[in-house]
Amino acid sequence: MSEINKVKVFRVQGTGPTPVTVKISRIGKALRIKCDCPAGAYMDPCEHWKSLFTGEDQNYLDITDDEIREIQDWLDDSDLDEALQNLLYFEGHEKNMHENLARQKRALRGRVIDILISDPQL
Question: Helices H, strands E: what count in the chain?
Answer without folding.
Answer: 4, 4
